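YM 10:42: Phosphonate C-P lyase system protein PhnK sequence, as discussed on the call
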Amino acid sequence: MKDLRDTPLLVVEDLSKRYGARIGCVDVSFDLWPGEVLGIVGESGSGKSTLLSCLAGQLAPDTGRVLYQGHDTLEMGEPQRRTLARTDWAFVHQNPRDGLRMGVSAGGNVGERLMAVGARNYGAIREAATDWLGRVEIDATRIDDRPRQFSGGMQQRLQIARNLVTAPKLVFMDEPTGGLDVSVQARLLDLLRGLVRDMGLSVILVTHDLAVARLLADRLMVMQGGHVIEQGLTDQVLDDPQAPYTQLLVSSVLQV
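YM 10:58: structure's back
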């Protein structure tokens, strides 16, 4: 029997998206392997967020294919895509308010994802929510508090718990540490790195912060003007950039 680790989890072929005359992303192709973290970096307007939205099914590309475990996600019906988004896939937003139900308790936010995959036993759901709050360093006594009572860093950790409680295979992350204080960022990055490693997650990470990319990503794609201009192992790209644009990014000449 063929080992699934020998087969890409996600295959992206010639993905393009334009907004009229403006380019979103053009002819992007890559494979993502089980347990791999792929970082997508570039300055604002480079196309990285457009690409992420197309990959995650939030935006319809103009051309190309996105194959998840051999199935073309762009040909799926809306019910299939919704099911995929709450089972095998997860999406961590930059602003946790976009990924949380702000009027629902912390425990309820985590429990909702479990209920979406069929969990019905209230005691088991609350136990799992309590466990996950602990895993993201939120005290169990806060389980009935609303997210609006939490700090920004706690809200982001709660969003991570909500997304990972069902053990998805693929997680999309859009600037997960953006807008947080440096000390809060460092704590969140340590947490994310541990969870990704322990759970064997595949991740597509969009970030403007090369330090975040170096810490989390196994491999990098550098985007400029909607095009992928360089890709390779993270340390290779950051320590020996080949494209002039990447050299500017690494030397912090460009404000990203």
